[in-house]
Amino acid sequence: MMGSEQDTASRVHEHTSSRCPCRPMQRRTHQKSRNGCRNCKRRRVKCDEGKPSCSNCIRFSLPCDFSVDQIASNDTVPDDASAPPVVTPTLARRRGRPLKIEKWILNPEASGHKTITEPRLHFPMPKRIADPSPPLNTNDLELLHHYITNTSLTLGDNVVLWRDKVPRLAFEFPYVLRLLLAMSALHQTQLHAPGSSGYQQLATAHHNIALREVTGLLSTISGKDCSALYIATVLICNYHFAKPPAIDDEPGMVGEAGIGWWYVFRGVRFVVESMGMEAIFSGHIGPFPPEAPQGGPADPLETTSGDGYIPWERPLVSLAVMLSGSSTLGSESLIVASEALMECYREVYGTADKPEYRTHGKTYVVMRWPWVLGDDFVGQVQNLVPEALILLAYFAVLIQTLERFWYMKGWAKHTIMGIEKKLDPAYLQWIQWPRNQIGLERTIEKSTTT
Q1: What does the alpha-carbon distance between residue 210 and residue 11 come to, in Å, rounded to a whole number?
Q2: pLDDT one-digit tens code per residue, 62-98
């Protein structure tokens, strides 16, 4: 009897227990709000309305538009205020986790909700994707900062081009960016020689990656990338000059090793002749024609000792007479090179009747001479033909006017000294004048008396 009563009691329970399955569950009370951010509304999750970003957006690294919409009504936000960078989440999707940021930005409809325009968020997608290569790191950020604040002021006569326009181009074309970093690293090497080995390695790495890409793109140049390839080829030329000259190797611009800069310079000429300056100076680096030079390097006191008119007419006319009577094979190319060189001298230094007292800001005039030279003359320099080497020595005087730029420093003397080592002693008298102009008088006296 007792057992049956206990069995009956065990089957009877009270519904007062909170764990009773028969008891209907009660919803936890909470304060309802319609002021959550739109990201949480899209995902239909509770927003804690934290400012300036709610915890859900912080958790998933989403750009919280809550701060833009809610705070903008109370606080004044400048039009150029920059938004925090977007970080792509890499965790697997699960309940409550948003779509990957790339899909969310590129295709907002994929989430099933309408596109919402955020006028204050400006994240332009790159038009060109870089080839797989070593990613940028803090060293590269340091180099980029140094380029914008220092190196860009020292690369050419047009400071606005190198400081303001070229960096915008570099963000679209990775090989331009790498060449900017390479030049920045070499600039650091020049400024901090004692501990410069690390910068030299960074410069070489960025230059080599960019050079491979530029070489592959030159054959398919078009209006879309001609500006970038022009800037890239100019930077490659500057990089070649910025590298420390090999004193013990083929010196200067002479011989098999030194002749390399001529062919590097041909890359610039190829781009210009293929597309034209009007097409090149459009878009990011426009307008065409380019603006007038702004006066050169950042330090206005940094001038060349040879700045101003020099009496060049008599020595160059004597050289032209000598070349006209030369029986050297290919003398026609030598005469053409001589005439072009005299024209460059006339525009840089003026004449005795109308002298020029400011020779800086004429890079385009100086570099016109190697621009017009044919392959015959370049071959003569490569083969150490005396007359060609003499003309190159006179060109070194023009190079000296560019040594206000750090990457050209020392090239005038280095070239003359290299020519002296390779030139037939019977022709040394012909390079006496250019050597005097670049300050090698004492060296000449010692070499002629020993």
Answers
A1: 83
A2: 777 644 444 344 444 344 434 444 443 343 444 444 4
User: Whose structure tokens read 């017009």?
Assistant: 372
**Per the structure block, which two tokens stand in for 4?**
């049956």
Asked if 416 and 425 touch (Cβ cutoff 8 Å), the reply is no
Output the DSSP codes for 99-124. PPHHHHHH-GGGGTS-----TT---P
Higher pLDDT, 392 or 252: 392
Q: Which amino acid is at 284?
A: H
The answer to whether 304 and 404 have CB atoms below 8 angstroms apart is: yes
pTM: 0.64
Instruction: Give DSSP secondary structure letters for 322-389.
Output: HHHT---TTHHHHHHHHHHHHHHHHHHHB-SSSB-S---S-HHHHTHHHHH--HHHHHHHHTT-HHHH
Cα 24 from Cα 231, distance rounded (Å): 74
- Give me the helix-helix angle, 331-349 and 313-324, nearest 10°: 170
Q: Which residue has the tokens 């009496």?
A: 311
**So where are the chain's domains?**
38-111, 138-285, 313-449
Instruction: Please answer whether residues 370 and 266 qualify as being in contact, where contact means their C-beta atoms are separated by less than 8 angstroms.
Output: no
Instruction: Name the 3-class secondary structure at 229.
Output: helix
Q: For the chain, what is the radius of gyration of the CA atoms?
A: 34
Q: What is the pLDDT of residues 198-221, one digit of tens each?
A: 898 999 999 999 999 999 999 999
With both helix axes pointing from N to C terminus, report the angle between 386-400 and 411-422 in degrees, rounded to the nearest 10.
170
